[in-house]
Amino acid sequence: MAMFSSRSWREYPQRYRLEASKFKKSGKTYYPPRTIDPSNGDTEWETVRLPEEGKVITYTVIRVAPNMWGDKSPYGLAIVELTDGTRVTVQMTDVDVEQIKIGMEVRLEFRRIQTEGEAGVLSYAHKAVPKWY
Amino acid sequence: MRDVCVVGVGMSQWGEVWRKSFRQLFVDAASAAIKNSGVDHLDGLYVGCMSGGLFVGQEHLGALCADYLGMAGIPAMRVESACASGGMAIRAAMFEVASGASDIVMAAGVEKMTDCSGDDATYALATAADQEYEVFHGATFPGLYAMMAHAHMAKYGTTRDMLSAVSVKNHKNGAMNPVAQYPFEITMEGVANSVMIADPLHILDCSPITDGAAAVIVCTEEKAKALGKPYVKIIGSGVGTDTLQLCQRADMTTIKASTLAAERALKMAGKTIKDVQFAEMHDCFTIAEIVICESIGLYAPGKAGAAILAGETALDGKFPVNSSGGLKSKGHAVGATGVAQIVEIYKQLTGQAEGGRQIPGSPKIGMAQNMGGSGASSVVHILEVA
Partners of B10 in the beta sheet? Predict the structure, then answer.
């Protein structure tokens, strides 16, 4: 499928800098950013950066992956709860997949994620690495 | 609103149906439903389909299906809610009849998933997840349900045997279903020793890729009586939604969209879950059936796995689940699944389930639970004998 660069660069602030929206009334932070707070309909928010540390609250090891991820499998995929309570779905890296477990303390690091589409757009974002690494 | 009845049903063959096209699968199911019901025309047609565009490069499915059914001219449209598309088509047809706008409407579902590579099919299915924040990072559908499974195991102590029991039960039922894709029994050891797809889910925890179509005729009770064929009533319909991303849900061990859909359907029917006697559930993965049994209130959170392992949801158990074989054994032609569930409920309520899979004791009320993606949308219907 063709991949247009606008679709990629539109996401840069969130993917590169972990920008999220923090709403005035509720104080809640959402990632990726939203413009309406689902908790109360508020539309006043400011951009904040997510913390880069957290822990694995659930995970899997993808052993059968689509072709584009074929050379990476098996790879760990986790839902990480960051220290401010927001959650992200990220790949685990720099870890033996057999060692991943719920409760593992991790840090987000900026990595290459994939080469998208026929144009081969290089896509970067964050992956989680064990804190002790 | 007027009472709405199901008066006839039809299925195409399900499986890797190389010789049939998307449109022919639809025509096979739709023609069977028309013949089964005895109706001489349709006032409208709703076609549930998740992704004609990605699986076979074809959109504009309402018109295509009406055309090849030999009925170009009738009102027809496609309904999409990922894997819940079929159930949503049922709801659309039901409300069209209930409103008084039409008397006889077909709800159909069709998906042709083997005209593309397995890799392309995986891509198409993944579009039901958040493309930019789940799929982008390498999430697959087995992967998302696997993360639900690990969370459920950590919170409630759900075991490998409980997961395997779902598959074993559904294959036992599916072995008696003449249209099932995989009509054979499997063992607990067979599931546990099958290849790992996404920990802790093995290949035999996963529903397959399937070509297939299903169709039902819904109409007013007056029309149903005039046709002189067995009919049942749709007494409740409910839909719920949730965040598209799994990680944004406060509790990843439940499907809130299904809780909402079931509550709404039961409220409309004037029933409680205790009044329902059996169900077809969306077992796209084994963990899904366990989570849904809890989400709709059939079992308390964390209690369904042990109950399934103990046989409580077997064909002769106190609440049979997936007498058709479910998605696991019957197959999961995604957009057709929600309609095929209604076909099974209709057959059970009218005593027409083939192959020895008729639920004992002539049940009177059944439920169909269908959902999309990792549970961001769900639709539930309650049907009762007339």
Answer: B215
